[in-house]
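User: Before I run my own analysis I want an independent prediction to cross-check against. Here's the chain; please return only the structure tokens and, at the end, one sentence I can use as a sanity check.
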Amino acid sequence: MSDSVNLIVTTRTDLREIIRDAVSEAVARYERIPELLSTKELAARLDVSADTVRKWVSRDDCPCVRAGRALRFREDAVIAWLEDRGG
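Assistant: Structure tokens:
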């Protein structure tokens, strides 16, 4: 099995554009990953207490991700859940 080597000849301007495009694509993919919030962070964003968030989880099955004893929340999922339940 032989290793092949490809040589690309380009200008600095073209190389900068290629790199800029690759970075833009990587950033766009990263921005689509939803941020996971802690109980305190979600409470602060929704202007409620952390206890209220915990009650939602225990009573109404508020959407969350459990990591051991820690709870994490996708803000968009919680807002959709609140809208669905009329809150």
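Sanity check: The mean pLDDT is 88.
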